Structures are given as structure tokens and as C-alpha cells.
Amino acid sequence: MTEMTTGQSPFDDYEFDTKLVLKIIREGLRPLFAPKTTSCYVKLAKRCMYSDPQKRPTANEVHKKFYKWNKCVKGSNDADVDKIKKQFLDADKVVKYCKLSLENIKIICILKKKKQCR
């Protein structure tokens, strides 16, 4: 989820080796979010990265959150909803300068799958 806010792969500035794995496992190292990323998005993403799988949200819960946020951004007259909408729209101003696009993510995923098949 951090990749969508920064436009970079998680831990892009680290060497992918045993040291990184140990930092993730032992020290709880997690990727960083782009500045001005919506707080509700960060909160959900951090829950998804819990080391204890029992504390992570289900796929259904994540889907419901995204569905709710999508409805908020598309329009509402509720003050709380407007606050969420503003956060996402402000974050979009930062995210649009990121170098990663959804199309590039699909290409990266396909290439990784092909490498794993070899």
C-alpha cells in the first residue's frame, strides 16, 4: 500500500538481502508513506503490515474501507465524509508526481511472475 503513495517499491533504497529481512522481522522495519498521505489510509496500511497475522484486517474489511472511501470521494454532504474526501484529494496532489503508475505496477507483477516460473 505504501507503493501507491510513494511511487516506489517498498524498501527501494535498501539492498535486498538477509540484513533487510532481519530488520523487517526483528526490528519491525516498515516502508514509509509519502507526505500528506491520508491518515485513514496510513492507519489501514499499518494494520495490514502487523507482524501478527491475527491483527491484520481481512480482505473483506479492506474492500469495505476502499468502497467507503471511494463513495466519500465521489460526493456527500456529511461533514465527516467531507473531511475524508479532502484528505484523499490533498494526497492526490502529492501522489500525481510519483513515478509509478497503475499500468507500471501491472507490468512489474507480470515480469516478476515470469521470473518465478523460470
Automatic annotation (TrEMBL):
Protein name: Protein kinase domain-containing protein
GO molecular function terms listed in the Swiss-Prot or TrEMBL record: ATP binding; protein kinase activity
Annotated InterPro entries: Kinase-like_dom_sf (IPR011009), Prot_kinase_dom (IPR000719)
Stretches assigned to the Protein kinase domain: 1-66
Organism of derivation: Gigaspora rosea
Domain of life: Eukaryota
PROSITE patterns: PROTEIN_KINASE_DOM
